Amino acid sequence: MNKETVQTLPASTKRKGFATRLGKKLGTASRQPIRNTSGKNNGDGQIWNLRLYVAGQSPKSVVAFANLKRICEEHLAGRYRIEVLDLLKNPQLARGDQILAIPTLVRKLPEPLKKIIGDLSDIERTLVGLDLYPLDRSSK
Amino acid sequence: MATTTVSRVIQTNHEKNGARASLPKTPTGIEGLDEITHGGLPRGRPSLICGNAGCGKTLLAMEFLVRGATQFGEPGVFIAFEETAQELTQNVKSLGFDLPALVRRKKLLIDYVRVERSEIEETGEYDLEGLFIRLNHAIDTIGARRVVLDTIESLFSGMSNTAILRAELRRLFRWLKDKGVTTIITGERGDGVLTRQGLEEYVSDCVILLDHRVNEQVSTRRLRIVKYRGSTHGTNEYPFLIDEDGISVLPITSLGYQYKVSAQRVSSGIPRLDTMLGGKGFYRGSSILLSGTAGTGKTTVAAHFADATCRRGERCLYFAFEESQDQIARNMLSVGIDLRGCIQKGLLTFHASRPSLHGLEMHLVTMHKLVEKHRPDVVIIDPVTNLVDAGEQRDVSAMLVRLMDFLKARQITALLTSLTHNSAPAAERSEVLISSLADTWLLLRTIEIGGERNRGLYVLKSRGMAHSNQIREYLLTKNGVQLLDVYVGPSGVLTGSARLAQEADDKNRELTRQQEAARLQTELVRKRQELAAQILALQNDLSMNNGELQALGTREHTRLSAVQANRRDMQRSRQSDALGVNGPRTNHE
Hints:
The complex is a heterodimer. By secondary structure, chain A is of the alpha+beta class.
């Protein structure tokens, strides 16, 4: 498998890959120990499964990953898993999730499926897109 | 045969344009479209097909791929933005396209791209690299040479950042060109513009507009090439059809006059009519117009021709727009033409339909198809004028031009009957449509004289042969059409009972003359006899005269002798001077 996964789960195995490199490049911690963000616990503690589709290491992809990372850390610390899929390496994957735009973030879990396109630089909209915003606000 | 003809035409067009325009083209395989584009779509470039909903964009695009895969060995990718692969498969199944089989053989790849605005949140910068990658992957998977994007405008409804979309579309078309695939992009017709999103701005090589109009309850699909950069093309609106065999575009006069002609002659089935046509009948592959008013026997003449064709062992296709097959067969029996045998042998095929059943184009295409199927030597359309009901006059004439072109290109002799109205000007007007198409024009007309209606036939024109200038009266007899002798009386050509009366009259006069002569002869004989009798009588007279004369002479002589004897007696008795007396008397005698 060419999927490169960033996991922030207890069970995460340490794997190095594209996403990790992305993270390092941007100076963010890509792999962190479990952090129980008890104060901001939204949802029922379900693990968030996110997929970020990129095409090589384009600037937009790099930015998107950084933004995603930051958001997850802020709102879903310890309960998320990010898969970074490079379509240049696996073009056939684009079909499955109906990917057109790059970068595209797909929220596989929790249901329903959500798609967010763009470099996620609009944090507000990203949060809305991920259904995180209202919850987050209510928890504050 | 059809495809060879088409390809021949394409070839000639290529040859014609080859020197100037060397733009490589990809044949679509769609009947007619390759003719009006002079070879197909620009190879390796995107073409735009736009039109309103339901005008056949998707079908045309799909046929382009299917024909490419099946006829030209060019695999194709169909990127569907509107329908799933399954829906598409079902939709084109009715056209006889077996998409799953093509997909299995890796000749076709259908990728359904779903763009759902409600599922997509846009946050910041993005591009359509994902689409590019998918497309690229699909193309490379099957080695595609053809691509269809149907309908890429859906992107605009799924994504709101039109600036990005436009830039990306521009990049996409550029990319497709670089990739060297021949692409069809479909686009929905906008209000007053070709496409809603102005796709024509990006796809500048070839733009084809489809249209679906309903005119007097008859729908007609039309196709027009709006532009075709670097190539000549037909500029008209061409009607096209979607039926069980896909799309057929009907170019009106694209063939030009390139067909071969035959010097062979075929009999009309009426010997004396053949005589009128230079003694041999029609030219093979020519078009014959048989026009006449109602009840002049057009169908009968046509049936003669059909019968003659089948007798030669050739095939005849009869389009009947007025009567059914059985009705024609029955009616023709009454004039001694038995078509049933020909029908049974399969030489004569009828196709009876109502003119109002379809639009004109459908009729034309049905004819095309049947001609392709039966490969006849002779086609009869009876009557062609009934098609006028199915369309406007201009359309009808255009259609007939196309039909004639089509038949001539295949050396099929065509006999069209045309119903004209009784008033002469109307007849002329309605025939202007077709007359220029007809190589031979026979006119059947009724001649109304003396309270009766008779039928007359004449050859109005016949290209390339010496033909009779006579108006011939003909009869529908038990043995078919019988042309009669020309009967020219003192006041012109006579027909019907006038002719009969004149004939009888002449006969009488002749008889009288004969009788007169006989009478004269007997008279002369009698006169001669009379004269002879007279001569005889005169001769009798003469001989009687002679007799009398002789008798008179004798008597006189006798009397004189007697007188002399008496005188001598007297002298003797008187004793007178015999000398004195005798002397002078002798002198007196």
